[in-house]
Design a protein that fits this description.
With 567 residues, the protein is an alpha+beta fold. It starts with 5 loop residues before the first strand and ends with a strand. A hairpin with a 6-residue loop joins strand 12 and strand 13. Among the domains are: 116 residues, Trefoil (Acidic Fibroblast Growth Factor, subunit A), CATH 2.80.10.50; 68 residues, ppGaNTase-T1 linker domain-like (Helicase, Ruva Protein, domain 3, Orthogonal Bundle). It is built from 15 helices and 27 strands. The N terminus is likely disordered. Strands 1, 2, 19, 20 and 27 form a five-stranded antiparallel β-sheet that branches. The longest helix has 16 residues. It binds 2-acetamido-2-deoxy-beta-D-glucopyranose (5 copies) and manganese (II) ion. It is found in: Golgi apparatus membrane. InterPro entries: GalNAc-T, Glyco_trans_2-like, Nucleotide-diphossugar_trans, Ricin_B-like_lectins, Ricin_B_lectin. It is a single-pass type II membrane protein. This is Polypeptide N-acetylgalactosaminyltransferase. One of its GO terms (biological process) is protein O-linked glycosylation.
Length: 567
C-alpha cells in the first residue's frame, strides 16, 4: 500500500492521470480529529493462505491464493471422487454459519477434493443441507413485508455446470427454507452440459420429492451462463425471474425484500446484499453494506463506496433499497416482462463476462433502475480461481463480450476503452452489433454521458469539462502516478509518509481536505484549506516522493498539465 507516486516519465509508459480521479489527501497528524467518520479496517478472516478485510472505504478486500498448488504434488482427484457423492452431513457442522474445521488426518483428501470445484468440498460435504444461518439484517427488516402474499410470484433460476451435490442442493434447500412458499412459482435448475454422474438420474430422482416444485432443464452442449439463463427464463412461469448462482445460501427474508421492490416498481432490477461463504471453511460471513457496484477503466466490475446521496438517504432509513450503478450479475430479480421488453441478454455474448455491465447500462439508460435491497442477504461462495473450462478461450470470449458492451452502450467512452485495452481493440471489428444498436434506438435509451452524470456522478472517467492527461513536475520532469498497489484493492489509494504529514491518494469524497487549486501562472498546486504547495521531497525522492511545503516558487513545486486525447 506504500505509494511510489513519482517515477520517470520516460520509463514508465506514459501514465495517464485524470486530475479529478486522484485526489491527494493531506492528513496532518495534528488534525487527525478532523478525519470524518472513517471506518477502520475490519478483519473478516485471516490465515496463512488468505486474508479478507474491509478497508477504510468499506470495500471488501480479499488477498489470497489458491491453496494446494503443487508445492507438494497433490494427487489428482480420482474418477470416483469426482463422480460420486460423498455427502456425509453431521448435524453440528457449519451450524449457524460457523466455520468447518477439517481434521488433520483428512488434509490430503481435502486438498485433492479442493481441486475439483476450487472450494473446500470436504467441508461442504459435512454441512447439512438445511443448516441454520445467522440473521445479519437490521432489526427493522423483520417487521417489514407483512403483506408479502400480495407480491408477484417468482421462478428461481439456478444455472449449474459440474456443481458439487452439496453446494447445489444447499442452494436449493436454502431457497425452500427461507422463502414463503406462496412466493415461489418454481425452481428451475438449468444444467449447462454437466459431466458428473450424480447430476444425471440421481439429481432427477432427488428433486421429485422437494417441497417446492423443481425442474431441470438440460443443455446437451456447453452454452455458457448467458444462454443457459435465457433457456431458464424462456420456460419460467413466474411473473418475476430470480437468478441465483449454484453455490449460494439464502437467508430469512431475502425473497420478500426483493419482490417488494419489484411490486413497487416493475422496472427496478433488484439485487440482494451478497454475503461471503468462505471457500475454505464454508463459514457464513457478513459482508459490508456500504458499497455499490460500478466498474473501472477496463470494464471490470468493482465494488465502491456508496455515493454521498445514497449515504444520506440511508441515514434516514437503512432498510430502504438504494441505487447501484451496476450489478455483480450473479444474483438478482427482475420482472419477467420487463426482462424481455428490455432485450433480455445480448445473445451474441458467449459463456460469461460483461453481461452484467451490459444489462446494467441498458437498464439505467433505457428507463429502469438497479437497486440493492439491504434486507435481502444471500451468501455466495467466492472462489479465487475458476474450475471451469472456458469454451472459445477466455481472452477472445471475454473481450468480445466487453467490446460489444463498449460498442453498443458507451458512446465516446467506448473509444476510450478501446484505446487503452488492446485485447478488446483486437476483436472489436469482428463484432456485429447492429441488432443491439437497433434495440437501443427503439427503446430510445439515454446516452452514456447521461448515465455518468446522473447515475454515477462519482465516476472517474474523462469528460470534456475535466482535464485528462499527465501531471508533470517541471523540476524533475517526472509524472505523478497513482499508487502502485501490492494489495488487491479496487481504488487507487496508498500512503506516502513524509516528515510530519502523510500524503494519501484515494477516491474522491468531495471534502475540502481533498481539494487543490492550480495556478496556471506559477504552476503551483495549492491545497485549498492550508494553502501549501505540492512538492517533491528532497531527501526521499521517488520512493516516498510527495510532500506539501510552504510555497516557494521552486521548480519542484511546479506542475504542468499535459492533455491527452481520450476519445
Ligand atoms: C492430473 O490432471 C492433469 C490435468 O487434468 C493432468 O495433466 C495430469 O497428467 C494428471 N496427473 C496425474 C498424476 O494423473
Ligand atoms: C434439518 O433436517 C434434519 C432432517 O433432515 C432435521 O433433523 C433437522 O432438525 C433439520 N435442521 C434444521 C435446522 O432445520
Ligand atoms: C490472455 O491475454 C493475456 C494478456 O495478453 C495473456 O497474458 C494470457 O496468457 C492470455 N490468456 C489466454 C488463455 O490466452
Ligand atoms: C449484422 O447483423 C444484422 C442483423 O442482426 C444483419 O442483418 C447483417 O447482415 C449483419 N451484418 C453483417 C456484416 O454480417
Ligand atoms: C490561465 O487561466 C486563465 C483563466 O482561467 C485563462 O484565461 C488563461 O488562458 C490561462 N493561461 C494559460 C497559460 O493556460
Ligand atoms: Mn459463483
Amino acid at each position: 500500500m506504500i505509494a511510489a507516486p513519482v517515477r520517470r516519465c520516460k520509463k514508465v509508459f506514459p501514465v495517464i492521470l485524470f486530475f479529478a480521479t486522484i485526489v491527494i489527501v493531506i492528513i496532518w497528524r495534528l488534525f487527525q480529529i478532523q478525519i470524518e467518520n472513517e471506518i477502520h479496517p475490519r478483519h473478516i478472516f485471516r490465515d496463512n493462505n488468505q486474508e479478507e478485510y474491509i478497508d477504510k472505504n468499506g470495500i471488501k478486500v480479499v488477498v489470497g491464493h489458491y491453496v494446494g498448488n503443487p508445492v507438494h504434488k497433490i494427487p489428482n482427484a480420482s474418477y470416483d471422487m469426482i463422480n460420486k457423492v460423498n455427502f456425509n452431513p453431521k448435524p453440528e457442522k457449519g451450524k449457524n454459519g460457523v466455520p468447518v474445521i477439517v481434521e488433520p488426518k483428512d488434509l490430503l483428501v481435502m486438498q485433492q477434493l479442493f481441486q475439483i470445484n476450487r472450494f473446500n468440498l470436504l467441508a461442504s460435504d459435512q454441512i447439512p443441507l438445511n443448516r441454520s444461518l445467522p440473521d445479519f439484517r437490521r432489526k427493522k427488516c423483520s417487521t417489514l413485508y407483512k403483506d408479502f402474499v400480495t407480491y408477484p410470484r417468482t421462478s428461481i433460476i439456478i444455472v449449474f455446470h459440474n456443481e458439487a451435490w452439496s453446494t447445489l442442493l444447499r442452494t436449493v434447500w436454502s431457497v425452500i427454507n427461507s422463502s414463503p412458499k406462496e412466493l415461489v412459482e418454481e425452481i428451475i435448475l438449468v444444467d449447462d452440459a454437466s459431466e458428473r454422474e450424480y447430476l444425471k438420474k440421481s439429481l432427477e430422482d432427488y428433486i421429485q420429492n422437494l417441497p417446492l416444485k423443481t425442474r431441470i432443464l438440460r443443455s446437451a452442449e456447453r452454452i455458457g451462463l448467458i444462454k443457459a439463463r435465457l433457456k431458464g427464463a424462456r420456460e419460467a412461469k413466474g411473473e418475476v425471474l430470480t437468478f441465483l448462482d449454484a453455490h449460494c445460501e439464502c437467508t430469512i427474508g431475502w425473497l420478500e425484500s426483493l419482490l417488494s421492490v419489484i411490486k413497487a416498481d416493475r422496472k427496478t432490477v433488484v439485487c440482494p446484499v451478497i454475503d461471503i461463504i468462505n471457500d475454505e471453511t464454508f463459514a457464513y460471513v457478513k459482508s459490508f453494506e456500504l458499497h455499490w457496484g460500478a466498474f473501472n477503466w477496463n470494464l471490470q466490475f468493482r465494488w465502491f463506496t456508496l455515493g454521498g446521496r445514497e449515504i444520506k438517504l440511508r441515514k434516514n432509513d437503512a432498510t430502504q433499497p438504494f441505487n447501484s450503478p451496476t450489478m455483480a450479475g450473479g444474483l438478482f430479480a427482475m420482472d419477467k416482462k420487463f426482462f424481455y421488453e428490455l432485450g433480455s441478454y445480448d445473445e451474441d455474448m458467449n459463456v460469461w463476462g460483461g453481461e452484467n455491465l451490459e444489462m446494467s447500462f441498458r437498464v439505467w439508460q433505457c428507463g429502469g433502475k438497479i437497486q440493492i435491497a439491504p434486507c435481502s442477504r444471500v451468501g455466495h461462495v467466492f472462489r479465487k480461481s475458476s474450475p471451469y473450462s472456458f469454451p472459445g478461450g477466455i481472452n477472445k470470449t471475454l473481450f468480445s463480450n466487453l467490446a460489444r458492451v463498449a460498442l453498443v452502450w458507451l458512446d465516446d467512452w467506448g473509444n476510450f476503452y478501446f484505446k487503452f485495452n488492446e485485447l478488446a481493440r483486437n476483436v472489436k471489428d469482428a463484432q456485429n452489433v447492429t441488432a443491439r444498436k437497433e434495440l437501443r434506438r427503439r427503446l430510445q435509451c439515454k446516452s452514456f454521458e447521461w448515465y455518468l452524470d446522473n447515475i454515477w456522478p462519482q465516476h472517474f472517467f474523462p469528460k470534456d469539462d475535466r482535464f485528462f492527461g499527465r501531471i508533470r513536475n517541471v523540476g524533475e520532469n517526472m509524472c505523478l502516478i497513482k499508487p502502485d498497489r501490492k494489495v488487491m484493492s479496487n481504488q487507487p489509494m496508498g500512503l506516502a509518509k513524509i516528515e510530519k504529514c502523510l500524503v494519501r491518494i484515494m477516491a474522491c469524497s468531495g471534502y475540502n481536505r481533498q481539494k487543490w487549486e492550480y495556478d496556471n501562472k506559477t504552476k503551483e498546486l495549492r491545497h485549498i484549506s492550508n494553502h501549501k504547495c505540492l512538492d517533491v521531497s528532497e531527501s526521499k525522492k521517488f520512493t516516498e516522493g510527495l510532500v506539501i511545503n510552504d510555497c516557494n516558487g521552486k521548480k519542484s513545486q511546479q506542475w504542468s498539465f499535459d492533455s491527452v486525447l481520450w476519445k
